[in-house]
């Protein structure tokens, strides 16, 4: 009886082991078929794409046969300086903030038709801000050391991507339905830059919600690459990486640097802005010591 029970136990154990091995083999075989099926699916997806690439590549290459237009050459040496260098020159009266701002405005107007990277601007107000900076520097209201410490970018122009709010300028994040929306106040980053003395010039292009791999939106269209106008500057901050990057020079065009044409003040500055500027000039004349209102430079005419 005992031998019979022992034999049955051994047979049961062997049977279970064999069944487990069979199940494992079936599972491994199933996984093998599954991997093979995925390989087939991936191949079926990849092959048409590869074939399409082979067919389309010669036609796409035809676009690059013609030479790309080039941006005007850099002629104004002011535009080759970094933000810190410009700020130092302004504080030391080697150059005026107005000269620097007008130089960048002139270059922006020269290259924007080719780059298509400007969403909105405040050129007139920026010139008034620059004149105010020059007036503060000339009166000696603050020493060079004070200005360097409290307003390190005093009088240096600044550009900002359009998805970041600059008071009074467009703030649509590239969305057509928000084309007419304007920022009611500065974003925190812009406030900090104003506090450091920087002068916002413009807001630059972004794709919708900064989420595409190239800088295109339905408001101004496609932004071009400054090194090759046939190509894209990539996405998110396309307008900024084009060269509106001087902070490295305070986000003020690297590629914008060049020809300084004298601007016609009468066409740039309206009567209200001129009146605000004159009031600030009178205040500087009447005060022996003036507290520089870094954040309030442009509040009057926005």
TrEMBL record:
PANTHER family, alphabetized: FATTY-ACID AMIDE HYDROLASE, IP13792P
Record protein name field:
Amidase domain-containing protein
Which first-to-last residue range defines the signal peptide? none
Q: Which organism is this protein's natural source? A: Cryptotermes secundus
Q: Cite the Amidase domain residue spans from the record.
A: 99-240
ATP-binding listed as a keyword: no
One of its Pfam families is Amidase
InterPro entries membership: Amidase_dom, AS_sf, FAAH2
Where is the chain membrane-spanning?
40-60
Give a yes or no for keyword Transmembrane helix in this entry.
yes
Key words of the record: Membrane, Transmembrane, Transmembrane helix
Please provide one cellular component term from the Gene Ontology annotations of this protein. endomembrane system
């Amino acid at each position: 009886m005992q031998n019979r029970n022992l034999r049955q136990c051994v047979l049961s154990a062997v049977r279970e082991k064999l069944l487990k091995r069979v199940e494992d083999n079936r599972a491994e075989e199933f996984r093998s078929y599954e991997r093979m099926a995925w390989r087939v699916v991936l191949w079926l997806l990849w092959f048409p794409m590869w074939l399409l690439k082979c067919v389309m590549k010669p036609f796409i290459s035809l676009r690059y046969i013609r030479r790309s237009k080039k941006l005007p050459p850099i002629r104004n040496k002011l535009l080759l300086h970094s933000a810190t260098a410009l700020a130092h020159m302004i504080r030391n009266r080697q150059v005026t903030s107005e000269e620097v701002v007008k130089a960048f405005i002139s270059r922006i107007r020269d290259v924007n038709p080719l780059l298509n990277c400007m969403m909105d601007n405040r050129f007139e107000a920026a010139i008034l801000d620059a004149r105010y900076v020059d007036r503060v520097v000339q009166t000696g209201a603050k020493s060079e050391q004070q200005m360097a410490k409290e307003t390190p970018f005093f009088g240096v122009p600044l550009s900002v991507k359009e998805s970041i709010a600059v008071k009074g300028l467009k703030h649509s994040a590239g969305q057509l339905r928000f084309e007419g929306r304007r920022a009611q106040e500065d974003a925190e980053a812009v406030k900090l830059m104003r506090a450091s003395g920087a002068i916002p010039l413009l807001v630059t292009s972004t794709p919708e919600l900064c989420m595409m791999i190239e800088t295109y939106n339905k408001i101004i269209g496609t932004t071009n690459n400054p090194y090759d106008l046939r190509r894209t500057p990539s996405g998110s901050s396309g307008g900024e990486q084009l060269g509106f990057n001087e902070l490295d020079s305070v986000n003020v065009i690297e590629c914008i640097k060049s020809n300084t044409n004298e601007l016609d003040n009468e066409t740039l500055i309206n009567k209200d802005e001129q009146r605000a500027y004159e009031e600030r000039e009178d205040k500087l004349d009447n005060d022996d010591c003036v507290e520089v209102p870094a954040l309030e430079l442009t509040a009057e005419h926005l």
